[in-house]
Design goal:
CATH topology of the largest domain: Heat Shock Protein 90
Keywords: Coiled coil, Kinase, Phosphoprotein, Transferase, Two-component regulatory system
Strand content: 15-25%
Protein name: histidine kinase
Distance between the termini: 188 Å
Enzyme class: transferase
Domain Histidine kinase: 462-687
Oligomer: single chain
Number of helices: 22
CATH superfamily of the largest domain: Histidine kinase-like ATPase, C-terminal domain
Strand order of the largest sheet: 2-1-5-4-3
Coiled coil: 410-459
Radius of gyration: 65 Å
Largest sheet: 5 strands, antiparallel
């Protein structure tokens, strides 16, 4: 066993020699590759010392091999790049990576700077122990220069693109601010690249961006698309004047320009659409045309003609309407002053020329009425008016414009008016005489009315004294006759009773008539009264009648007014009393009294905006009446029922109307037979003046 070990431990000289030879050959091949490599190569110690360098590296850095081997890589590395790759080198030594690469800068011997692409690997011995770095250095200065040039070019391109985009956005902003309808179409499909607010409103705010016109505006007239195709293919702009467009259901007019756009090489790449709304201009022109037509019509109907007179050339331009005023056919006036003057009435020519010359000299308006003689000999009246409208450089009058108006009818009317005025004066004189006569008659009538009023007052006195006395005697003697001879009268007592009843009715009638007459003869001045208090007093007076009929009187809120308190009480007592009296059998009467304040008329409100009238409504549920008798119920002694049905003399409502009229009010009634009646009394709340009344004893 020892022998075997000895034998195996012996080295084969031939084998060792062969290995050594192989190693030397490998070293020579490596050295040959190392020296002849097309890139710089170096063996570098861990502290950065150049251990071995090839000629390409020397040529790249400008140093000799001896010079480089006396230096380390830190000596020629740009200061900013010293720390680059430090971490990678540590990873390489630690065996974490097999190689690393980077770009870094080196200083050449002449001080110039080069860029190099450095690739580093690690040389290890048989035991895998790290020996040194193997560095491959490739000069990439030119590549870096090209990269930098490319970057600068790209940066310039980016800046140009940014500038172009900024210009585009500024242009778009200007388009948005422009008072026009603008859009940009791109490519042969006319894709919407931009549209300002005005244009988007024009197309009813559709979603059009980045869509072709045929897609975005599919409902448009095909001729529109064909027009765009023509502009794009021919390069000729299209200009449309006052094109009618229905915008939002309304007619609008636009001036359109379709202008082809070109790229940097001059090739057509789109269309700029520019439109301006000229609807106002079109409508204004149409309005002017209509105004001119109306003016011509007004001149023709109003018989007005216009002229323009150039004082320097003595030429006059007339309108056809003016020729008509002179009885001339169209074109019948030759346009000179002398031709015009020959138509003026001989008695008026001097005044007309004086007025014209004064207007020319002073600049005052030309204004005069004169007669013209037509070719057929007829005379017509005209009014001429005009003024100077321009002067030359020396301040001399140059042009006058004016009108002539046919005033023949007015002149004839004036003459007729003179005749009518004279006739009216004659008629007025005659009328004065008749008025004097009528005044005398009215004075006589007034005296008769005064006498009638005096007689009425005397009647009231007689009714209150003389007529009452015989009635009292009739009743007294009737009573005595019954007391003393009642048994002897027998059947004659019936006549005695009828006599006394007739006397009693006569007394009631006289009392009512006396009350009716006292509405004016015994009236009190108006004072401020509370109708609530008056109405309550009336209800208290009618308490027995209310209980007898089991009736109800409802009083609403009533206002305070200016009135005669006694007459207001009489009025309400009659109206409420009628409601109680004329009730339906077996149905208790219900009377309501309400009030409403009414505004004044428009003229009255201008002076006083407060309510001016009080409207009283007295409503009952009684027997009612046929409204065909409405005009009779307010007349004295008029009754709609027999004396045996309802008591009374027929004076109550007549007195109510007289009281209302004395207060400058109105009374109306409405009724349905068998259902009830409603009386509406309207009274002024206040009176402007306080009337005075006499009081007869």
């Amino acid at each position: 066993m020892t022998q075997n070990m000895h034998t195996s431990s012996q080295e084969d000289p031939g084998s060792i020699s062969q290995l050594q030879n192989n190693v030397r050959q490998a070293e020579r091949r490596f050295q040959g590759v190392f020296d002849q490599a097309a890139v710089g190569m170096a063996l570098v110690s861990f502290d950065g010392q150049w251990l071995q360098v090839n000629q390409k590296l020397c040529d790249t850095l400008g140093y000799t091999r001896l010079e480089l081997r006396s230096m380390n890589f830190q000596d020629i590395t740009h200061p900013d790049d010293l720390d680059i790759g430090r971490a990678s080198a540590q990873q390489l030594v630690a065996g974490e990576i097999e190689t690393y690469a980077m770009d870094k800068r080196y200083f050449r011997k002449d001080g110039s700077l080069i860029w190099a692409h450095l690739t580093v690997s690690l040389a290890r011995d048989k035991t895998k122990t790290a020996q040194y770095f193997i560095s491959v250095v490739e000069d990439i200065t030119e590549r870096k220069r090209l990269e930098e040039a490319l970057y600068e070019q790209q940066e310039a391109t980016r800046q140009m693109a940014a500038k172009a985009e900024a210009e585009r956005q500024r242009l778009y902003e200007l388009f948005n601010q422009a008072p026009a309808f603008i859009c940009l179409l791109h490519g042969p499909q006319h894709t919407f690249e931009f549209a300002n607010e005005h244009y988007r409103r024009l197309v009813e705010n559709r979603d059009i961006l980045h869509k072709s016109v045929r897609e975005a505006l599919s409902d448009y007239d095909p001729h529109f698309f064909e027009l765009l195709d023509t502009v794009y293919t021919t390069g000729k702009p299209y200009i449309g004047k006052e094109v009618l467009v229905y915008n939002g259901g309304q007619e609008s007019y636009f001036d359109f320009v379709y202008q082809p756009t070109r790229d940097a090489l001059g090739k057509i790449d789109g269309i700029l659409v520019h439109a301006v709304d000229v609807s106002e201009k079109v409508h204004a022109r149409e309005n002017i045309k209509k105004s001119e037509q109306r003016l011509h019509l007004a001149q023709r109907v109003g018989r007005i003609g216009t002229f323009e007179w150039n004082l320097l050339s003595n030429r006059i331009v007339w309108t056809p309407e003016l020729e008509t005023l002179y009885g001339l056919p169209p074109g019948g006036f030759e346009g000179k002053y002398e031709n015009w003057a020959q138509y003026i009435h001989p008695d008026d020519i001097a005044a007309v020329e004086e007025n014209l010359q004064q207007a020319i000299a002073s600049g005052s308006p030309y204004n005069i009425e004169f007669r013209v003689i037509w070719p057929d000999g007829a005379t017509h009246w005209l009014r001429g008016m005009g003024e100077i409208i321009s002067y030359d450089d020396q301040g001399h009058p140059q042009d006058m414009v004016g009108i002539n108006i046919d005033i023949t009818e007015r002149k004839e009317t004036e003459q007729q008016l003179v005749r009518v005025t004279q006739e009216l004066q004659d008629f007025a004189s005659m009328l004065e005489d008749r008025v004097d006569q009528r005044t005398e008659a009215l004075n006589q009538t007034n005296k008769e009315l005064q006498r009638s009023n005096q007689e009425l007052q005397e009647f009231a006195y007689v009714a209150s004294h003389d007529l009452q006395e015989p009635l009292r005697k009739i009743q007294s003697f009737g009573n005595l006759l019954e007391e003393d001879h009642g048994k002897e009268l027998g059947s004659g007592k019936m006549y005695l009773d009828r006599m006394r009843q007739a006397a009693a009715r006569m007394q009631v009638l006289i009392n009512d008539l006396l009350t009716f007459s006292r509405v004016t003869t015994k009236a009190l001045p108006f004072s401020t009264i509370d109708l609530n208090q008056i109405a309550q007093e009336v209800v208290d007076d009618l308490e027995v009648q209310i209980q007898t009929t089991q009736g109800t009187v409802e009083i609403g809120q009533l206002p305070t007014i200016q009135a005669d308190p006694v007459q207001m009480r009489q009025m309400l007592q009659n109206l409420i009393g009628n409601g109680l009296k004329f009730h339906r059998r077996d149905i208790p009467p219900v009377i309501t009294v309400s009030a409403e304040l009414l505004p004044a008329t428009e003229e009255e409100q201008a002076e006083n905006p407060t309510p001016a009238y009080c409207q009283l409504t007295i409503k009952d549920n009684g027997i009612g009446f046929d409204e065909k008798y409405l005009d009779r119920i307010f007349i004295v002694f008029q009754r709609l029922h027999g004396k045996g049905q309802y008591e009374g003399t027929g004076i109550g409502l007549a007195m109510v109307r007289k009281i209302v009229e004395r207060h400058e009010g109105t009374i109306n009634a409405s009724s349905t037979l068998g259902e009830g009646s409603t009386f509406v009394v309207t009274l002024p709340i206040s009176h402007a003046t306080q009337q005075e009344y006499t009081h007869d004893e």
